[in-house]
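[step 3/7] fold_predict: job queued, chain A
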Amino acid sequence: STHKFMTRRIHMPFPLNIVVAVIISAIYSLISFGLKLPSKYKTQFRIYSVVINLIFIVFLLGFSLYFKTSLPNQGITIYYNGLATLYFLLFIPLEVVLILLFRKLIMNADIYLVFLKYAIIIGAIVILTSIFALGYALFILTFYGFAP
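[step 4/7] structure written:
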């Protein structure tokens, strides 16, 4: 009876990385749909966000179901390169939009020193870029570093 308990496997409906990807995609979508973009760019950015998130989920699902079993050694390069590419396709446009919106907010603020406006913008760029660089490491670690 102990042997049965030790060999029993728990079957999850989806791999854990798909669940995490759906959560990341949902948060990303909430942010991208919540941004106050000019109407000229709002629809384009939302469509881009949805398409890239779907590609991200399909990539992880496809890799988990197909490449992992069919190409166990060669597939790891595809997986890593795909993750890196998708991170940049997801988050670099978001970072640029956030910086541009923050820049617009600061430039329209009642700050009389122009130097201070630019110092705030440069500080925000440094902070956001640092967050996104750390996010890249965590993203790759989550989906690649802990891969079974």
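[step 5/7] annotate
Residues 1-12 have pLDDT under 50 and may be disordered.
Residues 33 and 46 are 6 Å apart (CA to CA).
exit 0
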